Amino acid sequence: MKGGISVEVFGQEALISLLSHLFFITVTWWTLQAVRLEVIFKPNRIIQARVFYILITIAIGSLVSNFFLDYLRWSRQLPFLL
User: Could you tell me the keywords of this UniProt record (predicted)?
Assistant: First the structure.
């Protein structure tokens, strides 16, 4: 593409974003295993507890990944400051 961002750059950014989200969601899941969240759930609510773990993992992992990706994007834009 002339004078713009090439399609390859969009593909690379998509791949980095996917890998970043997967990485941080995995790290969040691993980290949450050390927390005893089951004490806040009612007895015999196993399915709801598992869904909660999954949702909280995705939420925290996505937030951390978005922070990392924003920081990376902003650092790439710094040369255009001047």
Answer: Membrane, Transmembrane, Transmembrane helix
